[in-house]
C-alpha cells in the first residue's frame, strides 16, 4: 500500500463509507415491491411515490410522512409489519448483492482501506442482512 498525499503534503485518509440498502445490497428494490404490494392490498393510492419520500428517513420520520398522506385510516405500524413480512418472504432464500460489490470491497480491504457502513435501517436488520450476504466481514 502506498501513502497518498495532497498538494500540501498532507496524508490523505484511506477510508470510505458505504450505504447498505440500494448500494451494497438490492434490498431497496425489494422493499419498494413490498410497500407497493401491501399498499395495493390496502388500497393506498400513490404508495410507490410515498416510498420514495421515505427513503433514507428514520422510522419516525416515515411515520409522519405516511400519516400526513393517509391519516389514521391505516396504522403505519401495521402497514410496516405487513410490508416487512412481505419483504422477508422475498428474501427468505437470498438477499441480492449488487454486482461488483464483493470485488470492490475485497480490493479496498487488500489496499488497506478502512471500510465503514452507514444506514438508516435498524441495526438489527443491518447486521442480519450483512451476515446473510456474507458481507459482514468487510466491516
Characterization of this structure:
This protein has a two-stranded parallel ribbon. It is mainly alpha-helical and 139 residues long. It is 51% helix and 7% strand. It has 6 helices and 2 strands. The model has no long low-confidence stretch (mean pLDDT 91).
Helical fraction equals 40-55%
Please count the helical segments. 6
Number of discrete domains: 2
End-to-end CA span: 19 Å
* Spatial order of strands in the largest sheet: 1-2
**Would you tell me the structural class of the helices and strands?**
mainly alpha
How much of the sequence lies in strands comes to 5-15%
From the structure above, extract its key features:
single chain, 139 residues, mainly alpha, Rossmann fold, two-stranded parallel sheet, 6 helices, 2 strands
Detail the topology: elements first, then pairings.
Layout (H helix, E strand, L loop, with lengths): L14 E5 L7 H15 L5 H8 L4 H12 L5 H15 L10 H10 L3 E5 L4 H11 L6
Parallel strand pairs: 1-2
Quick description:
The chain is built from six helices and two strands; from the N terminus they run E-H-H-H-H-H-E-H. It has about 140 residues and is mainly alpha-helical.
